[in-house]
Amino acid sequence: MKVHLCVVGRLRAGPEKDLIQDYVARFDRSGRSLSLGPVNIIEVEDRKGGGMAAEGVLLARAVPEGAALVVLDERGKLVSSPHFAERIADWRDTGRSDLAFVIGGADGVDPSLRAKADLVLSFGKMVWPHMLARAMLTEQLYRAASILAGSPYHRV
Q1: pTM
Q2: What's the CATH code of the domain at 102?
Q3: 98 lies in which domain range?
Q4: What DSSP assignment string belongs to 101-142?
Q5: CB atoms within 10 A of CB 110
Q6: What are 22-60's pLDDT values in tens digits?
């Protein structure tokens, strides 16, 4: 199952980008034997200043047809890392060939796109900067693959 990160904004060179690339590489290596990956990062930018609605259109276009859709939003569901891994495995095991994660811009994700999500996921009640949310998501993807592989990376 291919994994797509559909995100608003371009990440510039720096420690956050290095961290994200490291977790993506780890996920791609550990996920391969689990039929997970590779990760494809699709960055979109609304250059015309259309706000959340325009970003929503760009993000919706980036999501592959038929993909399981996960939207990150502070109003979303809080789940444990093992539960997150189980959800990914369930989508894979029921024949989904694509899994798309959406991270919106400063104003969040357009409600029409959020309404289509299979899961609206929260990393807590606090709002996180875009680049940190991306880093946390890639770490959780690697953690999920590690959990599914029975690796000792995740400790309870």
Answers
A1: 0.95
A2: 3.40.1280.10
A3: 2-149
A4: EEE-BTTB--HHHHTT-SEEE-S-SS---HHHHHHHHHHHHH
A5: 22
A6: 999 999 999 999 999 999 999 999 888 889 999 999 999
